[in-house]
Structures are given as structure tokens and as C-alpha cells.
Amino acid sequence: MESFDRAAWSAAGAGRRAMGFGPHLIRITAAETGGRLGVFEAEVPPGEGPPPHVHEKEDEILQVAEGRFAFWCGSDHVELEVGGVLVVPRGAVHRFQNVGTSTGRLLCMVTPGGFEGFFAAVESEAPAGPAEIDALAARFKLRFVPALAAQVA
User: Fold this and answer.
1) What's the structural domain count of the chain?
2) Which of 20, 29, 35, 102 is spaced 20 to 30 A from 7 at the CA atom?
3) What order do you get walking across the sheet with 94-98 strand by strand?
4) pLDDT tens for each residue of 83-126
5) Is residue 10 part of a domain?
């Protein structure tokens, strides 16, 4: 692991856009933090959100920056508005959904870092179907529950 002995920062609106599974703004990468964490923003249309999934490697911190979101983590369910924060432990099945009427935005932090690269990988590799998405996700220690390929079989 590289050294992380200087501040990492991202000015308002700065970052690199990644369009895999919708717009994501990668704010701080694992490379900038010695692998310790990654930070990105996700823009989520009303009614949208990922299917249930598990991060095998990272703890995840989600803060509502715009809108209103419902979060499910294990048997817990909570709805949060702007400023609300949820922490998901690695290995926990979870999902979220924008339950507002306009596009919402989440500030997402993962520790250790690296998962923030998933969205650029989806964009550049353009997986052709659920089985290819599952395989790409596995490289990032992400698992859909049930697997996407099983959901369409």
C-alpha cells in the first residue's frame, strides 16, 4: 500500500465523470489516498437504485446530498433526506432507491478504496449482459444478490 501522508481534496464539482450505470463523479481515488478510501457522487433518477448487492471488501458510507432515499441493509430500512448518512458494513446485503420526485445525489465513500473504479470499468468495457456484468463486478469484489445472470435466467 502506498503512503498517505498528504491531504487529498476535490473542489466543488471537480472530479472525473464515469457513466457506468448512470452518472458518477469520481472525486477522490484510492491512488490519491494510498488505497485507504475512494469518494464519488452518484446521480440517481427518481425510482431508481441498484439491486441488492454486497461489497466483500469495503465498508460504504452514503450521505444524501440531494433528494430523498430509502435504504435497505439486512433487515433494516430507513428513509433519509439531505444530510442523512448511512454506513454499510462490508459483507452486508444492501440497496437504495431514490424515493423523491427529482434526480437525487449521493456522496459515497468506500474504505478501503478501489471500488470507485467500477463505474469507469462498466463504461469502458460495456458488458453485454447480466453474466458479463456479474464477472466485471466480481473483479471489484461486488456481488449482486441474487446474481444478475440468475435473475434473467
Assistant:
1) 1
2) 20
3) 76-81, 68-73, 94-98, 53-55, 142-144
4) 999 999 999 999 999 999 999 999 999 999 999 999 999 999 99
5) no
